[in-house]
Amino acid sequence: MVTGSAGFIGRALVETLLSSGEKVVGIDRVAQPPRPGLTVLTADLLAGDELVRAALRDADVVYHLAGCPGVRDRGHDVARRRRRDNVRAGAHVLAVVPPHVPLLVVSSSSVYGGARGGRPSHEADPLRPVGGYARSKAVLERLCAERLARGGRTTVVRPFTVAGEGQRPDMALSLWLEATRRGRPLRVLGSLDRTRDVTDVRQAARAMADLAAAGAQGIVNIGTGRGQTLRAMAAAVAEALDTEVSFTVEPAPGVEPGASLADVRRLRSLIGWSPETDLPALVRRQAAHPPAETPWPDPPRPSAQTVPRSGGRLRRAHEH
Protein backbone atom coordinates (compact mmCIF):
# COMPACT_ATOMS: atom_id res chain seq x y z
CA MET A 1 0.00 0.00 0.00
CA VAL A 2 1.11 3.54 -0.81
CA THR A 3 -0.46 6.62 0.78
CA GLY A 4 0.01 9.80 -1.22
CA SER A 5 0.12 7.64 -4.33
CA ALA A 6 -0.85 10.51 -6.65
CA GLY A 7 2.01 12.71 -5.45
CA PHE A 8 5.37 13.31 -7.05
CA ILE A 9 7.35 10.56 -5.29
CA GLY A 10 4.23 8.46 -4.73
CA ARG A 11 3.64 8.03 -8.46
CA ALA A 12 7.24 6.95 -8.98
CA LEU A 13 7.01 4.48 -6.12
CA VAL A 14 3.77 2.98 -7.45
CA GLU A 15 5.42 2.58 -10.86
CA THR A 16 8.46 0.91 -9.27
CA LEU A 17 6.32 -1.54 -7.31
CA LEU A 18 4.06 -2.36 -10.27
CA SER A 19 7.03 -2.93 -12.57
CA SER A 20 8.40 -5.48 -10.11
CA GLY A 21 5.13 -7.41 -10.18
CA GLU A 22 3.64 -6.12 -6.93
CA LYS A 23 -0.08 -5.50 -6.44
CA VAL A 24 -0.54 -1.99 -5.06
CA VAL A 25 -3.33 -0.21 -3.22
CA GLY A 26 -2.95 3.54 -3.66
CA ILE A 27 -4.64 6.04 -1.33
CA ASP A 28 -4.83 9.73 -2.17
CA ARG A 29 -7.31 12.59 -2.05
CA VAL A 30 -6.53 13.16 -5.73
CA ALA A 31 -8.25 10.77 -8.13
CA GLN A 32 -5.94 8.48 -10.10
CA PRO A 33 -6.65 6.64 -13.34
CA PRO A 34 -7.13 2.89 -12.98
CA ARG A 35 -4.41 0.61 -14.29
CA PRO A 36 -3.50 -3.08 -14.08
CA GLY A 37 -2.21 -4.04 -10.65
CA LEU A 38 -3.29 -0.79 -8.96
CA THR A 39 -6.35 -0.53 -6.72
CA VAL A 40 -7.24 3.10 -6.14
CA LEU A 41 -8.90 4.48 -3.02
CA THR A 42 -9.74 8.17 -3.41
CA ALA A 43 -10.06 9.24 0.19
CA ASP A 44 -8.70 11.40 3.00
CA LEU A 45 -6.75 9.47 5.62
CA LEU A 46 -8.58 11.33 8.40
CA ALA A 47 -12.10 11.01 6.98
CA GLY A 48 -12.91 7.78 8.83
CA ASP A 49 -13.24 5.72 5.65
CA GLU A 50 -13.54 2.06 6.66
CA LEU A 51 -12.08 0.88 3.36
CA VAL A 52 -8.95 2.90 4.11
CA ARG A 53 -8.70 1.47 7.62
CA ALA A 54 -9.11 -2.06 6.30
CA ALA A 55 -6.49 -1.50 3.61
CA LEU A 56 -4.01 -0.20 6.19
CA ARG A 57 -4.69 -3.13 8.51
CA ASP A 58 -4.45 -5.80 5.80
CA ALA A 59 -1.44 -4.57 3.80
CA ASP A 60 1.77 -6.59 3.59
CA VAL A 61 3.82 -3.37 3.53
CA VAL A 62 2.72 0.26 3.97
CA TYR A 63 4.59 3.19 2.43
CA HIS A 64 3.33 6.41 3.99
CA LEU A 65 4.08 9.34 1.67
CA ALA A 66 0.92 11.42 2.12
CA GLY A 67 1.41 14.86 3.63
CA CYS A 68 1.54 18.61 3.17
CA PRO A 69 4.75 19.35 1.22
CA GLY A 70 6.60 22.58 0.66
CA VAL A 71 9.29 24.25 2.76
CA ARG A 72 8.43 27.70 1.36
CA ASP A 73 4.62 27.48 1.56
CA ARG A 74 3.31 30.67 3.22
CA GLY A 75 -0.42 30.12 2.76
CA HIS A 76 -2.65 31.58 5.43
CA ASP A 77 -3.60 28.13 6.75
CA VAL A 78 -0.35 26.31 6.10
CA ALA A 79 0.33 25.67 9.80
CA ARG A 80 -3.04 23.97 10.16
CA ARG A 81 -2.52 21.90 7.00
CA ARG A 82 0.95 20.79 8.12
CA ARG A 83 -0.38 19.80 11.52
CA ARG A 84 -3.30 17.93 9.98
CA ASP A 85 -1.63 16.25 7.00
CA ASN A 86 1.88 15.66 8.33
CA VAL A 87 1.29 14.99 12.00
CA ARG A 88 -2.31 13.91 12.58
CA ALA A 89 -2.58 11.83 9.40
CA GLY A 90 0.78 10.24 10.17
CA ALA A 91 -0.33 9.45 13.71
CA HIS A 92 -3.46 7.81 12.31
CA VAL A 93 -1.47 5.59 9.97
CA LEU A 94 0.94 4.65 12.77
CA ALA A 95 -2.00 3.71 15.00
CA VAL A 96 -3.90 1.64 12.41
CA VAL A 97 -1.08 -0.33 10.78
CA PRO A 98 -0.45 -3.45 12.91
CA PRO A 99 2.96 -3.63 14.61
CA HIS A 100 4.04 -6.68 12.60
CA VAL A 101 3.42 -4.92 9.26
CA PRO A 102 6.47 -3.10 7.87
CA LEU A 103 5.74 0.63 7.72
CA LEU A 104 8.02 2.99 5.78
CA VAL A 105 7.38 6.67 6.52
CA VAL A 106 8.78 9.47 4.37
CA SER A 107 10.21 12.36 6.36
CA SER A 108 12.56 14.99 4.90
CA SER A 109 16.20 16.03 4.91
CA SER A 110 14.94 19.45 6.06
CA VAL A 111 14.95 18.15 9.65
CA TYR A 112 18.77 18.49 9.60
CA GLY A 113 18.65 22.24 8.93
CA GLY A 114 21.32 21.81 6.24
CA ALA A 115 24.81 20.37 6.08
CA ARG A 116 27.16 21.43 8.87
CA GLY A 117 30.52 22.77 7.84
CA GLY A 118 30.32 20.95 4.54
CA ARG A 119 29.98 17.57 6.27
CA PRO A 120 27.29 15.19 5.03
CA SER A 121 24.28 14.91 7.33
CA HIS A 122 24.30 11.61 9.24
CA GLU A 123 21.22 9.87 10.62
CA ALA A 124 22.57 10.22 14.17
CA ASP A 125 23.04 14.00 13.94
CA PRO A 126 20.90 16.09 16.31
CA LEU A 127 17.97 17.60 14.44
CA ARG A 128 17.80 21.33 13.74
CA PRO A 129 14.42 21.78 12.03
CA VAL A 130 13.94 25.34 10.80
CA GLY A 131 10.45 26.41 9.76
CA GLY A 132 7.04 24.86 10.13
CA TYR A 133 7.46 22.16 7.49
CA ALA A 134 10.67 20.77 9.01
CA ARG A 135 9.20 20.94 12.52
CA SER A 136 6.12 18.99 11.46
CA LYS A 137 8.35 16.28 9.99
CA ALA A 138 10.39 16.17 13.21
CA VAL A 139 7.18 15.60 15.19
CA LEU A 140 6.20 12.82 12.79
CA GLU A 141 9.60 11.21 13.31
CA ARG A 142 9.11 11.24 17.09
CA LEU A 143 5.84 9.37 16.63
CA CYS A 144 7.63 6.84 14.43
CA ALA A 145 10.33 6.40 17.08
CA GLU A 146 7.63 5.62 19.64
CA ARG A 147 6.16 2.92 17.37
CA LEU A 148 9.60 1.45 16.79
CA ALA A 149 10.30 1.43 20.56
CA ARG A 150 7.07 -0.52 21.10
CA GLY A 151 8.24 -3.19 18.68
CA GLY A 152 6.47 -1.92 15.57
CA ARG A 153 8.38 -2.49 12.34
CA THR A 154 9.16 1.09 11.28
CA THR A 155 11.49 2.72 8.79
CA VAL A 156 11.86 6.49 8.43
CA VAL A 157 13.48 7.75 5.24
CA ARG A 158 14.87 11.26 4.80
CA PRO A 159 15.01 12.01 1.07
CA PHE A 160 17.24 14.81 -0.09
CA THR A 161 16.22 17.13 -2.98
CA VAL A 162 14.23 14.85 -5.30
CA ALA A 163 13.88 15.78 -8.98
CA GLY A 164 12.56 14.28 -12.18
CA GLU A 165 9.38 14.05 -14.20
CA GLY A 166 6.32 15.17 -12.27
CA GLN A 167 8.26 17.28 -9.78
CA ARG A 168 6.02 19.61 -7.81
CA PRO A 169 5.64 23.01 -9.49
CA ASP A 170 6.85 24.88 -6.38
CA MET A 171 10.31 23.26 -6.43
CA ALA A 172 13.33 25.02 -7.89
CA LEU A 173 13.91 23.01 -11.07
CA SER A 174 10.20 23.12 -11.98
CA LEU A 175 10.10 26.86 -11.37
CA TRP A 176 13.28 27.40 -13.38
CA LEU A 177 12.13 25.30 -16.33
CA GLU A 178 8.83 27.16 -16.45
CA ALA A 179 10.53 30.55 -16.12
CA THR A 180 12.87 29.70 -18.98
CA ARG A 181 9.99 28.59 -21.20
CA ARG A 182 8.36 31.95 -20.55
CA GLY A 183 11.55 33.90 -21.21
CA ARG A 184 11.85 35.07 -17.63
CA PRO A 185 14.88 35.17 -15.31
CA LEU A 186 15.47 32.38 -12.82
CA ARG A 187 14.90 33.40 -9.20
CA VAL A 188 17.90 32.27 -7.18
CA LEU A 189 17.80 32.38 -3.40
CA GLY A 190 21.08 33.20 -1.69
CA SER A 191 23.85 32.32 -4.12
CA LEU A 192 24.60 30.22 -7.16
CA ASP A 193 27.27 28.50 -5.09
CA ARG A 194 24.77 26.98 -2.67
CA THR A 195 24.49 23.22 -3.07
CA ARG A 196 21.77 20.57 -3.04
CA ASP A 197 22.03 16.79 -2.98
CA VAL A 198 19.81 16.24 -6.04
CA THR A 199 18.32 12.75 -6.17
CA ASP A 200 16.56 11.13 -9.14
CA VAL A 201 12.94 10.38 -8.22
CA ARG A 202 13.13 6.95 -9.87
CA GLN A 203 16.14 6.00 -7.78
CA ALA A 204 14.59 7.41 -4.60
CA ALA A 205 11.52 5.23 -5.20
CA ARG A 206 13.64 2.16 -5.90
CA ALA A 207 15.63 2.77 -2.70
CA MET A 208 12.40 2.87 -0.68
CA ALA A 209 11.22 -0.42 -2.19
CA ASP A 210 14.62 -2.01 -1.56
CA LEU A 211 14.67 -0.81 2.05
CA ALA A 212 11.27 -2.38 2.68
CA ALA A 213 12.39 -5.62 1.02
CA ALA A 214 15.55 -5.66 3.17
CA GLY A 215 13.54 -5.29 6.39
CA ALA A 216 15.37 -2.07 7.30
CA GLN A 217 14.46 -0.42 10.60
CA GLY A 218 15.06 3.08 11.94
CA ILE A 219 16.19 6.18 10.05
CA VAL A 220 17.82 6.11 6.62
CA ASN A 221 18.98 8.95 4.38
CA ILE A 222 18.14 8.75 0.68
CA GLY A 223 20.52 10.85 -1.39
CA THR A 224 23.65 10.67 -3.51
CA GLY A 225 26.27 11.99 -1.12
CA ARG A 226 27.28 14.56 -3.74
CA GLY A 227 26.30 18.24 -3.76
CA GLN A 228 25.19 19.99 -6.95
CA THR A 229 25.56 23.76 -7.06
CA LEU A 230 22.64 25.95 -8.06
CA ARG A 231 24.98 27.13 -10.82
CA ALA A 232 25.17 23.58 -12.20
CA MET A 233 21.41 23.20 -11.91
CA ALA A 234 20.85 26.45 -13.84
CA ALA A 235 23.29 25.30 -16.52
CA ALA A 236 21.39 22.01 -16.81
CA VAL A 237 18.16 23.94 -17.36
CA ALA A 238 19.82 26.00 -20.09
CA GLU A 239 21.10 22.87 -21.79
CA ALA A 240 17.80 20.99 -21.49
CA LEU A 241 15.86 23.80 -23.18
CA ASP A 242 18.70 24.75 -25.55
CA THR A 243 18.71 28.41 -24.61
CA GLU A 244 20.48 30.94 -22.43
CA VAL A 245 18.93 31.62 -19.05
CA SER A 246 19.30 34.74 -16.95
CA PHE A 247 18.67 35.00 -13.25
CA THR A 248 18.19 37.28 -10.28
CA VAL A 249 19.71 36.60 -6.88
CA GLU A 250 17.61 37.36 -3.81
CA PRO A 251 18.31 36.87 -0.10
CA ALA A 252 17.49 33.36 1.02
CA PRO A 253 14.83 33.04 3.74
CA GLY A 254 15.79 31.40 7.00
CA VAL A 255 14.11 28.11 6.09
CA GLU A 256 16.57 27.68 3.20
CA PRO A 257 19.73 25.79 4.21
CA GLY A 258 22.99 26.92 2.66
CA ALA A 259 23.80 23.38 1.58
CA SER A 260 22.37 19.88 1.77
CA LEU A 261 24.39 16.70 1.57
CA ALA A 262 23.49 13.14 2.56
CA ASP A 263 25.68 10.67 4.36
CA VAL A 264 24.64 7.52 2.47
CA ARG A 265 26.77 4.93 4.22
CA ARG A 266 23.83 3.42 6.10
CA LEU A 267 21.74 3.25 2.92
CA ARG A 268 24.54 1.43 1.10
CA SER A 269 25.01 -1.00 3.98
CA LEU A 270 21.32 -1.88 3.94
CA ILE A 271 20.59 -2.23 0.21
CA GLY A 272 24.02 -2.43 -1.38
CA TRP A 273 23.81 0.76 -3.45
CA SER A 274 22.96 4.45 -3.31
CA PRO A 275 21.53 6.82 -5.94
CA GLU A 276 23.75 8.48 -8.50
CA THR A 277 22.49 11.52 -10.40
CA ASP A 278 23.39 12.46 -13.95
CA LEU A 279 22.15 16.03 -13.51
CA PRO A 280 21.93 17.10 -17.20
CA ALA A 281 20.13 13.87 -18.15
CA LEU A 282 17.75 14.17 -15.18
CA VAL A 283 16.84 17.76 -16.03
CA ARG A 284 16.35 16.84 -19.70
CA ARG A 285 13.96 14.11 -18.62
CA GLN A 286 12.07 16.48 -16.35
CA ALA A 287 11.92 19.14 -19.08
CA ALA A 288 10.37 16.62 -21.48
CA HIS A 289 7.49 16.03 -19.08
CA PRO A 290 4.45 18.30 -19.58
CA PRO A 291 4.76 21.17 -17.09
CA ALA A 292 2.22 21.40 -14.30
CA GLU A 293 -0.34 24.16 -14.44
CA THR A 294 0.30 26.68 -11.69
CA PRO A 295 -0.42 30.38 -11.18
CA TRP A 296 2.62 32.44 -12.13
CA PRO A 297 3.89 35.14 -9.77
CA ASP A 298 4.83 38.64 -10.80
CA PRO A 299 8.09 38.60 -12.77
CA PRO A 300 11.26 39.43 -10.81
CA ARG A 301 13.52 42.34 -11.56
CA PRO A 302 15.74 42.19 -14.68
CA SER A 303 18.57 39.71 -14.48
CA ALA A 304 22.13 40.33 -13.41
CA GLN A 305 23.77 37.29 -15.04
CA THR A 306 23.21 34.79 -17.81
CA VAL A 307 23.86 31.07 -18.16
CA PRO A 308 24.66 29.98 -21.74
CA ARG A 309 22.85 27.01 -23.21
CA SER A 310 26.12 25.09 -23.46
CA GLY A 311 25.91 24.60 -19.69
CA GLY A 312 29.41 26.02 -19.34
CA ARG A 313 30.55 29.46 -18.24
CA LEU A 314 28.51 32.16 -16.60
CA ARG A 315 28.90 35.60 -18.08
CA ARG A 316 28.19 38.82 -16.30
CA ALA A 317 25.49 40.95 -17.83
CA HIS A 318 24.13 44.30 -16.71
CA GLU A 319 23.19 45.12 -13.13
CA HIS A 320 20.38 47.29 -11.81
Automatic annotation (TrEMBL):
Residues 292-302 have a biased composition (Pro residues). Residues 285-320 are annotated as: Disordered. It holds the Pfam family Epimerase. It comes from Planobispora siamensis. InterPro entries: Epimerase_deHydtase (IPR001509), Lipid_A_modif_metabolic_enz (IPR050177), NAD(P)-bd_dom_sf (IPR036291). This is Putative UDP-glucose epimerase YtcB. Residues 1-223 form the NAD-dependent epimerase/dehydratase domain. PANTHER family: BIFUNCTIONAL POLYMYXIN RESISTANCE PROTEIN ARNA, UDP-D-APIOSE_UDP-D-XYLOSE SYNTHASE 2.
